[in-house]
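Notebook entry, structure prediction.
Reason for the run: the old model in the group folder had no record of what sequence produced it. Starting over properly, with the input documented here first.
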Amino acid sequence: MSTDSLSPLAGTQHLENEDLDHRAAFVDYVLEHAEEWHRAHLTRLYMLWEDWNGEHFDSQLWPPYIELLEPSAPTVYGSCASVSGFGGKLGIRLRPSLLTGTHPHMRHGLCHEEGRVLFVADVLLHEMIHQWQQEVSGDTDEGYHGHGPTFRDKANEIGAKLGFGQTRTSKKRGKDKALPSCSQWPHNVKPEGYYLGTYVPARRDPRRTFAVPADLEGAVVVLRKHFDVGELCKRLQADA
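New structure, fully documented this time:
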């Protein structure tokens, strides 16, 4: 991908030419030389990024580092950091287990692959708003952990184009407190069935400090993380 085909520099004046050149070279490498599984998924994600940059952000963004890596926070699906893991300026991380189906909120198997792809695409769109906050608007909603009025208004602007419902900030207050939080946008405003039955968000058990997935395979993953499964089986046999 040549730099001529990328987005203009509007809104990214604080980035040096070296930063922009390296980000463009990173995209080139991903599209041409990355390992096959990564190349397939990242090529699709960069194509979506380019389309959405024009449709929703007036082509003001420059392609970021998009990586299939675990975000720093264990409970989030993706992140947009001002500094990447190797020190480059602005990196978007998307949790790879969402694509492989090993995440507790995703269903396994080839039959659910399309739903997983749709879900991760929406994670990218969410993180693109954070990129826009950092590199264009300059308002990162710090008092709201990134999901304040600026993020809400941009999400609602995009949502209005796509026919989604409105959201509120991450703080549940005022006349909009009944609306869904923009911190989970756009997953919480998509129509039921959009992810083809692949997305199975965890139920919360008030007696425990971890999420209980709705599917059996996901539950086993959580049980192994929090319990000595062998000891648990022994107790169950003793009680039988």
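Summary: The longest helix spans residues 113-137.
The old model has been moved to the deprecated folder.
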